[in-house]
Each structure stands twice: as structure tokens, then as C-alpha cells.
Amino acid sequence: MQYGVMVRAAEAVPAVEPTGGVVMDAELRRKFEDLLRSSEAFFKEVQGLISKGRSLDLRKEARVNSEIARQVTSKWSVEIIFLLYMGGPMGFEELRRTLGRISSRTLSQRLQTLERLGYLERKLFMARPIRVRYSLTEKGRSVATVGSGLFLYLRYVEGHLGGR
Questions:
Q1: What is the pLDDT of residues 11-40, one digit of tens each?
Q2: Domain definitions of the chain by residue range
Q3: 134/93 Cα distance (integer angstroms)
Q4: How far is CA 108 from CA 95, 112, 113, in A?
Q5: Which pTM value belongs to this model?
Q6: Cβ atoms of 96 and 107 closer than 8 Å
Q7: Is 77-140 assigned to CATH 3.40.50.920?
Q8: What is the pLDDT of residues 52-97, one digit of tens each?
């Protein structure tokens, strides 16, 4: 099986209505429909450039996607990336307080993993007391930017967008 088959199966982007009886105004609905169309066009174009007409091993592609997703979406990682994306650089204790029920050990491990993966950077300030600030790298900001659209769409289809 190749991506071409998968893409042909998804020719028409379905109009998805949010669940839970949430009523969306026409402008918001149109924005999400535009997101779907542009995402599909982007996927087809990039996949065509990558595959260059060759069949791709879907099992391998799915496994690689899954491995990457597990690293970035492990418990607390999404929350940390989101907080740094929306709130800017934060210190360790500020992150811990904002996240709520996370132990210092777990937070430290997640921060180290995200730093090792290149999503955030740790800056040490030699003051008294020594301060540490965490911020997203360019890679982290780009992942958060793309991910925000995905999460907004998921909130839309699940009926969790407030204020409208």
C-alpha cells in the first residue's frame, strides 16, 4: 500500500461539525474548513515531493510517526511546550506551580528530555540565588505553532472551544 492510495481515499475534506451541541458561527466554521483544505493540500504536495512516485512502506512510516509523537506528547511534555509557547520563558518553579500536580523530579526529567530533543533551551543566570529559565528553541516554537492549529481543530471537533 502506498501514500497515493491513502491520499486518494481522502479526496474530499469532510465538513466536520463539533460534538456536544456546540453551535459555531459561520466565520469560525469557515476558518476550520480552510485549515482542513490547506492541510490536505500541504500533505499531498509534500508527500509527492518525498515519495517521488515511489511506494512507501506505510508500516514503517506509521512507526516513525508514532515514535516521534510519543516523545513530544509524553505526559507533561505537551503542557510544558504549550506554557512556554504561550507564556514565554519561565523558571523551574514557575513551570511547576503553573502545571500543578507534577513532582519536581518528573518536571526535571521532562525538561531534560525536551532539551535533549532540541525543543527547549535552558539558560543559567549566575545571580544569587542562581536562576534557570527555560524557553523554546526555534524547533520548539515551530512545533508549537503547527501543534496549536491541530489542538484548536481537535477542540473544535470535540466541542471544547469556549467563548463562541
A1: 444 556 665 555 567 888 898 899 989 999
A2: 1-9+24-56, 77-140
A3: 11
A4: 10, 6, 9
A5: 0.75
A6: yes
A7: no
A8: 878 888 899 899 989 988 888 888 999 999 999 999 999 999 999 9
